[in-house]
Amino acid sequence: MGDTQDDGRERSVRMYAPDFLTELFRNPLDPGYADAAARRAHAPVSGWRAWPARSVSLLVVVALGFLFAVAYEQTMADEPGRSQARSGLVAQIKQRERETDRLSERADQLRAEVARQRAAALSGSQAARLRNLEAGTGMGRVRGDGVVVRLADAPDKADAVTGADAGPSRVLYSDLQGVANDLWGAGAEAIAINGQRLTATSTIRSAGQAILVDYRPVTGPYEVSAIGPGSMKQRFEESRTALLMREVAEKTGLSFGVREAEDLTLPAAPEPRLRYAQPSVSPSPSPSGADRSASPGPSGSGTSTSPSGGGR
């Protein structure tokens, strides 16, 4: 009876306290909820709830360790097969490179033999005219003084804030196109990029990160060698490409330089594959338009723009 009166007095005090909000924040939990929480704490726990949190964490760690161990064993078991496949591909690549080099040497020998036989069959004036035509179209080796333009990627740089590698400023295929075209415009008579001779049908394009000259990859540093008159260097340095490349070099660290060179030797370009050649019907000279298309120059240097590429 006394307990009932005490409970009633406590409720009355809680309900009719002078400052209800103060009392509410002081004792936010109803006594009935507090009693239920106390009984739940002392009641026996059964089933999975009885497992301590530490035991559950231990089981999770053991399961993850088992999964990692299985993945590692599987990776190590597959590694010999991957290494063997990689070694086989590397061996095939080296074998193909050796075969390509051997065939290239054989082609050069046959070309030289054809040139000797042709010179022996032709008269002096005809042989000289043929040599001049070959030099002009890129089918013959040429030698003389000229200019060498060197381009190279900028060194790797790390971001000053994050420390991450910002990547180099790369030489683009369009840079080589611009250099070749402006060298033609400056009076170049023959041009080669890293030993690849340019002709009227040559192409300079990109395939991913690689630059292709006549579908042959070239790597940096890139040297564009040109044979021409003595004024070629000055005329090229005043061209739009030279001014642009100097500006890019100052901003990105890309290497760009122009120097005069004496006694340059540029190799002959591979002979083109003739698909539609026909014998001449009459001995009359070919139209002037065909002659222009056969001679290299700023518009016929073969530096065609790839549709998927970009420029400066």
From TrEMBL:
Residues 79-108, 267-312 are annotated as: Disordered. Pfam families: DUF881. InterPro entries: DUF881. Residues 94-108 have a biased composition (Basic and acidic residues). One of its GO terms (cellular component) is plasma membrane. Keywords: Membrane, Transmembrane, Transmembrane helix. The chain crosses the membrane at residues 51-72. Residues 279-312 have a biased composition (Low complexity). PANTHER family: UPF0749 PROTEIN RV1823, UPF0749 PROTEIN RV1825. Belongs to the UPF0749 family. This is DUF881 domain-containing protein. It comes from Micromonospora deserti.
